[in-house]
């Protein structure tokens, strides 16, 4: 059947419509220009009429008759005088044109005195950095013209810079990190401390743009984020860096905020995460936030070297296989995690060879969250036992294919105590709290794009996924709900996200701090991992593992005692 061509309006209608719209817009603009005097006079007449009616309303009633008489007399005289009506019309039109003129005050041109002073002093401060004696036509010279050096600037209501573009001579070594750092340091001091600045170096055009950044929101509470399977929200960042936004509820209002989303799973290029920060900067909070999101679709093993019971709220919850605070429990759980990773790998490979999809029990995400493993390293060395970190080798190396994700958090000064496996395989990185430029660069592998400030709220830092850009980040407030210092709203937000309990109520006690007794395993954990110290003697909820501990990881040399593993964990292993 022959095809009939589409009517032209449908085939290239879009272009035609756009052209017609453009034509109409040009015609309207032309007409406005031509009719401008009439528009002004009409506006003036309206204003005169409004003034007249206001005056009439303000005139007392007993004087209105006299006023009317006066007006009528004036009209009569004007009508009788030669050319009177014509002169009257011209007078009224002139008055209307004067009244109808555009009265919006012209935008202030240029900076005021104090702003000029700021620009001048900044220019003078830059002279030693951007000039050399041999330059025949220097852009920067003492007493020179700042207008040429600063083509664009903007001030906020407090009179400080919020945006500034700086031209610099082509010979400035803008490709060297130290040269840049010197300029950025000077600019952030001169533009006002206490704020964060973003610097964009345009090496081609020899331009540097400084932008003062608004603080990131610190009031975002834990909540169910709208994410796809395999996505975890690490925190929130600047709108300039991320295209996507997440709808968030904040009290009763809703708003869209750009997130830093970390993708895990078999296709992830950054399957494991390392979080570092000074004490009290929110590393445990970030792990708790990750845990609550992971529990939506996966299982969790938590190993807490800090031993302050910050994960007690997760003990015995659906999907939480173990929460370990003692060295023995940590070794047991991580040993199991190693076996489980190996088991999943074998199952996945077998299914592939047989042309089947991987079995469900090898696909359900397993998360291993390890907080402060460096604390265990000391304990293990003192006790002559194996460092639990060494048991992370297999999950870190092979976890991606087995849907096993490892998250490690520790203090910044413990970076050297982290094993090679942790450092090599954690390609998603977060640094929280105050950190020097060198520390940030050492952890993230790239410098921070903004000047670090001394005072930052907990949960503030930088994140980098693989070789991607460095993002400023604020972790959502996900406090320990058992902490008295927590606000009710934030506590309730976390409690609402916790899965239901699956263990008896006697497992609900908060863990005992490990500092008090190095091997102290909290009651909650003991109920799951009891039997650890008792060899093969089994108690309710525990099963002794029959695996050879020394065969766990290729690089393991220290022998490990055969220990019990959580009943639920073994169930998962054998299912
Ligand atoms: N993103 C955040 N928003 C609001 N408050 C936070 C955030 N992160 C942490 N906090 C608060 O800061 C305090 C310390 O947090 P957290 O315990 O997570 O820090 P940490 O780095 O694990 O420190 P430590 O190792 O000493 O326990 C807590 O009171 C916590 O509620």
TrEMBL record:
Q: Alphabetically list the UniProt keywords.
A: ATP-binding, Membrane, Nucleotide-binding, Transmembrane, Transmembrane helix
Domain FtsK per the UniProt entry, residue ranges: 257-441
Q: Region entry Disordered: which residue ranges? A: 499-575
**Superkingdom of the source species:** Bacteria
Ranges annotated as biased composition (Low complexity): 510-534
Binding positions for ATP per the UniProt entry: 277-284
Q: What is this protein called?
A: FtsK domain-containing protein
* Native source organism of the sequence: Streptomyces viridiviolaceus
Q: What is the lineage of its organism?
A: Bacteria, Bacillati, Actinomycetota, Actinomycetes, Kitasatosporales
